[in-house]
Amino acid sequence: MTFRDIRENKRLEEMMLKYEFALNILETHLNILIKEFAFSHGYNPVDHIKSRIKEEKSALKKLEKKGYELTYYNLVKHIHDMIGIRIVCSFLSDVYDIVKLIKSSPQFKLKEEKDYIKHPKKSGYISYHLLVLVPIYLNDTIEYMEAEIQIRTMAMDFWASLDHKIQYKLSKTLSKEIIDELYNCSLNIRALDSRMNRLNKVVKNYIETDV
All domains of the chain, ordered by start, with CATH? Predict the structure, then answer.
């Protein structure tokens, strides 16, 4: 799947290169922020980080699914997750610490945020999304590239990963039974995160008291 116009394809090729530059910059700054946080707090809240640039075919397929004509303009205007970074944290409180850390950084411009933890999707999906603009410097000019950052706990990531695999296997619409069960599993995940977060606070209090 590709653009019909060869000039559009050339522009897409150039844009993919810019996405690569932006991802490198974003990864570097995020690693610096997290290491600084870990140094000053004596604790690293991040379990692991995953990153990717959406493949051209996948992006065009998503554009087609949304009902838009396959043009370079529509790709840039309507596909906001060409750059994707997922930050997986240990505890629920860590998620909000990382969100605060990123939002306070002068390295990025915050374009949009969605708290799917306090306001889960109907499917049961829970995570915190930040849409940021990452500056890249080319030929004495600054261009801002969109990137989506997802911050979630290991439990949330577990649910989202399995939900994706279940839905990916089915070509047809999920039955109500499956939808309800996935949502109930999400409720269990939320309850588990809350319990583990409370337990983590208790442990921290014990450590502070011993010191």
Answer: 6-210 (3.30.460.10)
